[in-house]
Fold each of these.
Amino acid sequence: MDVSPDHPRYKSLVIREKMSELSDQGIVARTGLIAHGRGEAFDYLLGEKTTPAAQKAEAAIAAFLLEAERPVITMNGNASALCAAELLALAAEVGAQVEVNLFHWSRERVEKLVSYLESFTDLPILGREQDAVLEGIASDRARCCQTGIYAADVVLIPLEDGDRAEALRAAGKKVLAIDLNPLSRTAQAANATAVDEITRAVPQIRQAVKELQNDQPRRKKLLADFDNQANLAESVQYIIENLTAQQ
Ligand code: PTJ
């Protein structure tokens, strides 16, 4: 479908077209389109901009990644479709491994995702050889890589489902989320959640990485001061105030 650049929701329509095409190719799960719609709805409520709370969480995420010994960024269909190049650049900047980890798992789909990401980068993409199992998830989704997610101390899970976020926490890992829904189980389970649209959040995290990479005392202070529950409450309050101002 041709979308006119004059359309007031041009960007959103172009992204929807891309998601739809990548769904036809099996990169995005069909229900990934529904998840995208839920994200768009929350983004409306947030005024489609990065809030002060999100900015704080993005700085905390950058600090967690820089302090990590074995950071991993997990990639699913939606995150890959929306933000592959930026997430891979972030991985390179913080020395994180990248692992494909799917909710709608099939060997064929993992292969598609790994190949898709390899077309953007020379970084190794984990996921083809899943040789470990994450406790607490009773399905194929528990599969992961021994040298990747299984051994990670810090895991960034953009647009994740709640079960895995909780299982990663239970396994003792620091969990970092990007999720527009401040009420989701993922947002609530994480150590730091950026309640922001992924294509805005990742460039902000990369910028914070630049600012924090040579400043360990500031990183430590940021992490000591960061409280995810309070930050999520700030996002909910922002939505309330944004809606009240519209009346
Ligand atoms: O590719 P797969 O098989 O791993 O499946 C990926 C999806 C996203 C379908 C799967 O993980 C899933 O069902 O996730 P949920 O439980 O729907 O959660 C996705 C969360 O991401 C929801 O809370 C959405 O509000 C949020 N979200 C959607 N789009 C965006 C977003 N958050 C930030 N930016 C977005 N663009």
Amino acid sequence: MKLTLSVIKADIGSIGGHICPSRQLLEAVRQHVNQYSNKLLRDHYISATGDDIAIVMSHERGMADPAIHKLAWDAFLAGTEVAKQQGLYGAGQDLLKDAFSGNVRGMGPAVAEMEFEERPNEPFLFFAADKTDPGAFNLPLYLAFADPMNTPGLMLAPGMAQGFRFVIMDVNHTEGDRIIELQAPEELYDIAALLRDTERYVVESIWSRASGEQAAVVSTSRLHNIAGKYTGKDDPVMLLRVQKDFPATGEVLAPYAIGPLVAGAMRGSHQMPLMPVRLDSGISYFDGPPIVSCAAFAMHRGKFTEAVDVFAHPFWDSVRSHVADKAQEIRRQGFFGAAMLPMSELEYTGIMEKLDRLNGRFIVRGSEQPQRTVAGKKKRARKEEGVLLG
Ligand code: F6R
Ligand code: MG
Ligand code: MG
């Protein structure tokens, strides 16, 4: 049976700043999907991770289906009404366009979808991360799909011996989807060279080279490319099929024990370790740390079992405590060096204006001429243009 799994996710308002959505808001989204999903969906699952709400849907309508996307968009609109009534912070913040135009891609919500022939048993994982961006999945995916030190299946499972094809997107390219396809293991060093730059190159999908089947899909939206300015981090979602010719669930989860430093946390402008958390966890220390949750499912004819909360297992308690230590350790150096993101990735423009103003006060010794600011230069150019035209 050919099925599509779609996850559509948005931040439409939260309590206490960016902590979590209210129960009433989640309920409004749930009610909308329950009411209008009958003829469209085989099944659905709605959850919150930090301040983001994700709707996972199974259906037979294929990828980028307007009715499926509209269902999620309208559910988020219904939720936004509640967020406004309750005075939640950032009500409707990820709904960046006024009118729905057939597909939520490019409108603010994050999307990840894959279409496949359902296996007789179809285990899959749904990941959601908050206070970070899609590059946060680069390392866990590289380790799970390309490194036999993490994934013994690459040596042991015949269906995995040929390796995997990585589709990597240049998310800075705004004129269209700029992608490259690289094969593991032959092109491992090329894959690593791109994936180390998490703010520019992001794994979009991964495919089995033996069967051609899709194993993983990640949302790759960059909100500032849509809005023209920063409107929050691009908190990503990911769907992963596991077992048999794909990595086992444990191989996919193992890298999250590292708690790698990722972009995000306070004002979307820091480097903080990624903490694996229980489903429906909120945000706390330093508007972070960045969190990742994972729900495991079995699926038959598009019907989901209950979600199993994989990071609720006691094993992850010690990982969380390690990540909390790591978070405090990097915070000890405040704004200094690697603790903050590079200029191009800061969410706030205030620092740019500050630097521009200070630039005007720099002098080159001997010449005693203040440097001109970018704003000043623009003003002068406009004036000169006016003189020429006038
Ligand atoms: C992501 C998130 C952050 C904020 C950022 C700025 O869920 O909430 O990326 O967008 O911390 O938030 P403000 O400026 O609203 O404090
Ligand atoms: Mg937020
Ligand atoms: Mg968020």
